[in-house]
Amino acid sequence: MTVRIVAFARIREIVGSGAFEWVAQDGATAGDILAALTTKFPQLGDLTRSIRFVHGGAFAGAATVVRDGDELGLLPPYGGG
């Protein structure tokens, strides 16, 4: 299946693009996709515990199943006041 990954801030810098297509196995979760991305982009390793997912316009957990054609947003740690 093909998923559109939308990367923000530091994640975008690491992967070299704000949005790209990613091929994953059917039934993959957001966490599975992040693990695969970390294999390709080891610099993500330091951020993986803090990355938040956006799926279907809402925050999602690592166990969220992603389907063909879905969009998965990856947000790095952020703060503000």
What's this entry about, in short?
The chain contains two helices and five strands. By secondary structure, it is α+β, with helices and mostly antiparallel strands.
Question: Can you walk me through this structure?
Answer:
This protein has two helices and five strands. It is α+β, with helices and mostly antiparallel strands. The protein has one domain (2-75): Ubiquitin-like (UB roll) (Roll). A five-stranded mixed sheet has the order 2-1-5-3-4. A hairpin with a 2-residue loop joins strand 3 and strand 4. The longest helix has 11 residues, at 30-40. The protein is globular, with a radius of gyration of 12 Å. The N and C termini lie far apart (39 Å).
List keywords for this structure.
alpha+beta; 81 residues; Ubiquitin-like (UB roll); globular; five-stranded mixed beta sheet
CATH architecture: Roll
Choose one word for the global shape. globular
Strand content: 25-35%
Number of domains: 1
User: Which structural category fits the helices and strands?
Assistant: alpha+beta
CATH top level is Alpha Beta
Topology summary:
Layout: E1 2-7, H1 9-15, E2 19-23, H2 30-40, E3 52-55, E4 58-60, E5 71-75
Parallel strand pairs: 1-5
Antiparallel strand pairs: 1-2, 3-4, 3-5
